[in-house]
Design brief:
Layout lengths: L1 E9 L4 E6 L11 E3 L5 E10 L4 E7 L3 H4 L6 E5 L1 H12 L2
Antiparallel strand pairs: 1-2, 1-6, 2-5, 3-4, 3-6, 4-5
Length: 93
């Protein structure tokens, strides 16, 4: 799990706008975004802005009426391998 950034706002197009805190080394498109509690809240759709200060547009996967509650929350990226482990672990419960 890698720290990604902080949610700045919910856009009119129903995406989270996340200010990225880490250096973008690979294209994070289609990777899942989670909270510190490992709740999957979205999927990266695009990286926008300047190279020095990029932002991510993340498709919201939580109910829209709850999305505003996540503004200001730190987010993390999970790789596909980590996602498989997470679901495998929760499936055994």
């Amino acid at each position: 799990m890698k720290r990604f950034g902080r949610i700045v706002k919910v856009t009119r197009s129903r995406n989270f706008l996340i200010k990225i805190h880490t250096r973008v080394e690979r294209d994070p498109k289609d990777l899942k975004v989670v909270t510190q509690k490992m709740e999957i809240i979205g999927v990266v759709r695009d990286i926008i802005g300047r190279v020095e200060r990029p932002y991510a547009l993340v498709k919201i996967l939580v109910p829209l009426h709850l999305a505003e509650n996540y503004v200001g929350t730190d987010t993390y990226l999970i790789t596909r391998e980590e996602e498989k482990k997470l679901f495998r672990r929760s499936g055994n419960v």
